Structures are given as C-alpha cells and as structure tokens.
Amino acid sequence: MKKLTLLLMLALSFSQSALSLQYSKADSLKVVRLFLQADSQKFNNIQERTLFFARKLIGIPYVASTLEVNRKEQLVVNLRQLDCTTFVENSLALALTHQSGKKTFREFCKKLQTLRYRGGKDVSYIGRLHYFTEWIEDNTRLGICKEIQSPNPPFTMIQHVRVDYMSRHSDKYPMLFNNSFNRAGISKMEKAISGKSYRYIPKSQVKNTRLLRSTIKNGDIIAIITNKSGLDTQHIGFAVWHKDGLHLLNASSIHHKVVEEPMLLSAYLAKRKTMPGIRIIRLKN
C-alpha cells in the first residue's frame, strides 16, 4: 500500500515540470497502476511484455487524430482514446519503461517521445514520425526494432514507397493548413521516404502454415500496407497467434475500440482491396 501511495504521488507531481506535455491525471495514474500490475508477471522478452500492456488497453475507445488537438505541437499522452498508431506507441512505451526498471510516469513520457519523434528529440510537427515507414526507420536506428524482410517466401513482393498524401491534402491537417513552414518540412520528409523499397508478405501468403508461424512471432508489429495514392500503410497492430491462425491486436475503427480481432487476419485482408499485404517489424530486447 505504501508503494502504491508513493508511486501515485510521483505520478501526480510530474504536472509541474512538463510544460510541453499534454495529459490528464487519469493518464498518469493509469500508467503507474499498469506498472504495478506488471510487477507480478514474468516476461521472457520485450514481445511478451508489450503484449501484456497492449492487452491491458483492450476496450479503450478508438478515436482518430488525438495528436492533432493543439495549435502547437506537444507530446500528447492520452490513454483514454487511442488510434492504431497511438495504441502501438503507448503499449511499447509502457513495455520499454517497465523493462528499464525506471517505472515512473516521467520515464514513460520520455520513452513515448523517443518512439514518436525523429531521433527521439524533435518535438515539433515536422519532427513527428507521421508515415509509418519513417517510424520504422527511425526506431530501427535507435535500436528499438528491426524490419523483417526474409525468408522468401513468404516475403515475395516488394513495396515501392511513394508518399505525398499530407502535402496534397494539407487542408485535412490543422497544423499544416495555412502553415507554409510545416508544409515545407513535411514535403521534404515525404521526398526523403519516397523511392525506398521494402519486401512484404502478400495477403495470399497470410495463412496458418508452419512457414508463417516461424516467420511472424507473437508481439511483432504488423504494418498493413496500402495501394491508396500517397500513403505507405493503412493500419497497424500486434501479431497474435491463435490455434486457428494469425490475428491482429489493434485499435479498431470497425469495433470502435481496442480489440484482439476475432477475425483471422487473412479474412480481414481478403475483404479489403486497398490492403495488398503486410510488413513485419520485430521489437529488440
């Protein structure tokens, strides 16, 4: 009880020192409580730890664009509403913080910033990792994850990235609209990503086979790529194997909340013409 009281006091005291941070007391208290729950568990790797925290977020409402709420960029902590990207980021930030042993809300915020912004430092609109391709590359450089692109099969196809959606639709982004500095920065970033190629697993190969089970591990990040013009990915979540095959643990716009999708990923992909396949990102211990 004394430990819980002390940790809750530390969580609440953080509000005085984080001027570039937006969060609620409910968020800081939730983080601390989740750490306490994780303390009683045994984890063999970062994947198991991440899935533990991800499953603790099941049921949280899906809400899009929760990072687009301010006129000026801030590190937004919102564990009351999640989209597919913030769900993955928050789950991983919780796991990385808990693994580090520095189980405080302050350290959680640092980890979340590292995941969300270029180099872990540039807390600005153009420093945010908007496209998941850049998210993968930046967090690979930081040693947090690596992209899996073999064996072949099942990685039989190549995605040639061409992104410009944000530049072409700046009116959809409050911090881009009527902001020439941000538009120029985003356009520069898009050009840096475009032209790169990555191997992916076509949806025809997403089956309950020994090969796929040996290729995709529980807790891997699944990035569902898209053929929509100007975008690289359409949805992300965590891989979870059930007896019947591969499923996706994700913040779902269909279910309007975080769910461990009951539908097989193969069936989910088969219903969507804009989703040709998946890229696989593995967390590093």
Automatic annotation (TrEMBL):
<keyword id="KW-0119">Carbohydrate metabolism</keyword>
<dbReference type="InterPro" id="IPR010846">
    <property type="entry name" value="AmiA-like"/>
</dbReference>
<keyword id="KW-0858">Xylan degradation</keyword>
<keyword id="KW-0378">Hydrolase</keyword>
<keyword id="KW-0326">Glycosidase</keyword>
<dbReference type="GO" id="GO:0045493">
    <property type="term" value="P:xylan catabolic process"/>
</dbReference>
<dbReference type="Pfam" id="PF07313">
    <property type="entry name" value="AmiA-like"/>
</dbReference>
<dbReference type="InterPro" id="IPR038765">
    <property type="entry name" value="Papain-like_cys_pep_sf"/>
</dbReference>
<dbReference type="GO" id="GO:0016798">
    <property type="term" value="F:hydrolase activity, acting on glycosyl bonds"/>
</dbReference>
<protein>
    <submittedName>
        <fullName>Xylanase</fullName>
    </submittedName>
</protein>
<keyword id="KW-0624">Polysaccharide degradation</keyword>
<keyword id="KW-0732">Signal</keyword>
<feature type="signal peptide">
    <location>
        <begin position="1"/>
        <end position="20"/>
    </location>
</feature>
